[in-house]
Amino acid sequence: MKTRFCRIVILLLVLCLLLSAGPFVYADGTESTPGIGSGTESGDGTEPGGGGDTGNEDTPGNGGDSGSVDDSGNGDDSGNGDDSGNGDDSGNGDDSGNGDDSGNGDDSGNGDDSGNGDDSGNGDDSGNGDDSGNGDDSGNGDDSGNGDDSGNGDDSGNGDDSGNGDDSGNGDDSGNGDDSDDDEDDEDEDEGGGFWSWTWPESDKPYPEGDARFEGKTWEEITERFFAKWQIHPDTVGIGYYNTVSGELHYYKGDTYRYAASLYKLPLNMLYGEKVYLGEMTMDDLIGYVSYGEIQKYSIIHSDNPLSELLQEHTGHYEQYRKAIAPYLCPDTEELDPTFRFTNMFTPEQMLTCLRMLYDEPERYPDVLEYMKQAEPENYFAYSEQRYPIAHKYGYFAEDGYLTLNDAGIIYTDDPFILVVMSECMAGNIRALSEYCSLMCDYTMYQKALREKEAENPSGQVPDDNPPQAEGAVTVSPTPETNIPSVNHPSDVPGTDLTEEVSAPNLLPTYILAAFIAVCVIAAIALLIFGKKRGHRLVAGALILASCVIILIVLDLKRDKVETDVSPTPSVTETATTTLNPESTVDPELMPPKATPSPEGDLFLTVSHITFSLVGESENIYWGSIPAENVIWTSADESIVTVENGLLTAVGVGETTVTAQFGEKSLRCTAACLAETEEELYALPEDTLRSPKRIPLVPENPPVEFFADAALMGDSITYILMQNEARLNILQQPAFIVRGGTSLLGIENRSYNFSYGGVIMDVEETVAVCGRNKLFIMLGQNDLGYRSIQDTLASYGVIVSRIRERNPEVDIYIQTVVHEWAGTHDDNSRNEKIDAFTPLLRNFAEENGCHFVDIQRYIVDHTGRMAKQYSLGDQIHLNEAGCIEWMHALLAYVYAENIGGKEL
Fold first, then answer.
1. Cα(239)–Cα(423) distance, rounded to whole angstroms?
2. What pLDDT, on a 0 to 100 scale, did the predictor assign at position 458?
3. Which value, in Å, is the radius of gyration of the alpha carbons in the chain?
4. CA distance linking residue 860 with residue 817, whole number of Å
C-alpha cells in the first residue's frame, strides 16, 4: 500500500511538471503573425482580448460555473471578498477554487484573519485545503487583505473591509467597487494572455516605480532605444503621441509624408459621419447601391476597399475628395501641399490631428469610434497589447519588396492617449508595432504615476534627470524636407482590391500533441496503480519518459523560433521583404508572357482608333517588324479612308475600318474623318471637337514585366499617374521619382531635389539609389510657362548628363509633355509653344542617345488642346481616363520596341 502511495505521489509530481510546461507547448497558438483582416468576433466585443466564449462572457473562465460570471471569481459576492475567492461555485473548476470546495485555506485566504499582517502568512487554516476558494472570511476581505491584522491599511486591502472594494472581489460587492481605488474598467494585466501567450510586456507592472526603461530618459530617447532593439531604421518610421489628460505631445518625423494605405478611410468616414450629425444625410441614404450605414461599418471594421471606393467616388474626383477630407487633417486648408492633394499620403501629425478631433467630439461622427473599437481586436496595436481597450484604424500594404505597416488609434489606459505609427518596414513585423504600443502604454502609466507622486508630495524634489512632462509639451525630432517616397508606392486608394489577410496559425498539431501527452500520463498512472506485473511498470515508465522527451523537444524548437523571430531591417538602399500576403498581389502564373516576335516578324499598329480632323490628313499607323509591303492592307470604305503599307489618308467624311493581315494574324483599326473644311470642323459640337484624335492599341500580351526595372520621373503630372497606377496596377508598379512643382531649372540649380526612402537627394543620386535601369522622364511643362524653348532644352542636357555620369548603365526614355486643357490659357499660346517644343525634344533625344516616347499625340484633341475628357477638373493635370491612356501608350511603345518594330 505504501509503495502504491509513493507511486501516486511521484506521478502527481511528474504531472505538475508536465502541466507547468503547458504555456510553452501551447505558445504556438499565438506566436505567428495574426491574420490581417481576420474577423472581429472575439474578445469582449469592442475590447480586445480573448476569443469568443472567453474572457468575461457567459460561459467563460476555466471551468464549469467558473471564470468571470455570477457566483464566480469576478461576479456578485465574488472575487476576493467575504463570500468568495473565486466564488463559491467558482474558481478554476466545478464548484471549486483550486481543490475540493477549496482554494487557499479552510477559512482563509492567506492566513487566519489576514493577508500579510500580524495574524498572517500562510497560516493555520490555510493553504490549498478544504472548503475554500479564497473563501468565507477570506481572500482580501474583512479583517483581511493588507489590513491592520494585515498589510497596508485598517481592516482593509484597498478599501473598507475589502480586498479591492466593499466586501468584494470584482463584482457588485467587488474589488473594483465603491470603496476601491481601481478604475471602473480596470482589467488584470495578463488578460488575453495567460497560458495562451508568450509575448509579454517588458515589465510586469503597468507603471513600475523606478522603471529603468523610462527613468532619466526623454520620449525620443525611449523611442530610439526601441528602434535599436528591433533593428528599425529611424528614417522608415514616423510617430505621433498625445496624452489626452496631460496634454503631453511628441512627434518623431511627424511632418514627413508617408504612404497611408487604409488610414485614409478614417477621415473619409468622419466626413460622412458629420454630414449625418448635421442632418445633411442619414445612415440609410444610398451611396451607389449600398446604404451609408453599411459602408461605414464595413469600411472601418473590415477595411473594405470596394465600398470605401464607392464612398470616395461619391465625394468627387480624387482632388475634390482630398480637399473634402483636408479639414480633418490639416490646420491650414487654404494652401494644400501637392503631396496631400494628389497622393494617398499623410503625415503622422495629420493623422494625430484627425484622431484628436474624433476623441474630443465623438458625437459629431456617429458610430465611427465604436466601429474602430471592433476593428482587428487581436492585430496591429492589439496583437500583443491586450491589457487596454484600443480603438484604431490600421493600414497595411506589401508588394514587390515594399511594405507599409501603419496603425493610428486611441488606447484607453487610465490616461487615454493617441498613438500614430506610420512605417515602411517596422522590421517587417506586426509584433514590433504592437510592442511599441505596449511600451507607450507603460510610458503613459509611468508618467501618470510621477504626476500623482508629485501631487501627493508637492514640496518633494523630482530628480533633475527625469523632469515631469509639462502639459502641452511638444517634442519634435528633426525631419527632412517633405518626403515624397518614390519607391513602388502601391496604394489602396479606392479601387485597389486589397485583401489584407494572412492565414491564421494552425492549432491542430498543438491540440494533437497535448492530447497525446495527456493520454500517455493517464495510461502511466493506470498501469502503476492497477498493474501487478513488472512489465506494466516498465511500460508506465516508458510513457512518462516519452512525454518528457516530447516536451523538451518542443521547448527547444520554441527557443529556436523565438531567437530567429526578429529579422534585421534592410538599409535605406536595400529592399524590404515580407512573408505577409500583400493587399494586392499578381500571381506570377497569371502574368502575361513577354511578347516575342515570330520568326517572320510581328504585326502591330500605333492606334486602335484614329480620327482625322480634315479631309486630306494622313498618318502612318504601322508599328510592326514585318515589312509593311508584305502585309495585306484593306479599307472597308475607301471613299472615307485609303490605306497603303500602313499609311492612312482621309478622303471623305465618315467612319470605316482598316485591316492589316499577315498569315493568320490580323489587326483592325477604326478610322474616321470629321470634316472637309475648317468651317465645318468648328461648327461641330464641342464634345466632338474636344475628343481625342488617337487611342493607342493595347497589346494582347502587355509587356508589364518591362516596368519591373523601370522608374518614372516627373512633376505633379507624374504624381497623379503614380496615384492612378497604384490603384489600377496597369504597369504593375514601376518605381516613381516625383515632386510637385518641379522644373528642369530647379533641378539644374539643385534647389529642387527628389526624396527617396525618406532622404532628400540630387536627381542623379536618387536614380542610383532607386536601382532601376530604365528611366522615363517627363519634365519641362513648368519651364515652358516662363522660359524659352532653347533654355528648357539646355537644362534637359544638364540633367541627362548628370544622370548618365552617375548611372552610365541607365537607359533614358524622354516623354513628351502633354497639352494643356487651356482653361487658364484661352489663347492656346502655351499649347502652341508645346507644339514647337516637341520636335526639338525628339531631335534632342536622338542626338543624345535617348529613347523618345510620344505621349502627347494620344492626349491631344482636334483643337490642339488636351482632350477635355482627360482633364482633371478642367486643369493641366490628367484624370484617371487620361492616365490610363498614358499607361496604354507606354505599353504600346514598349511592345513595339520588344518586337523590333519601328514607327514610320
1. 8
2. 66
3. 35
4. 11
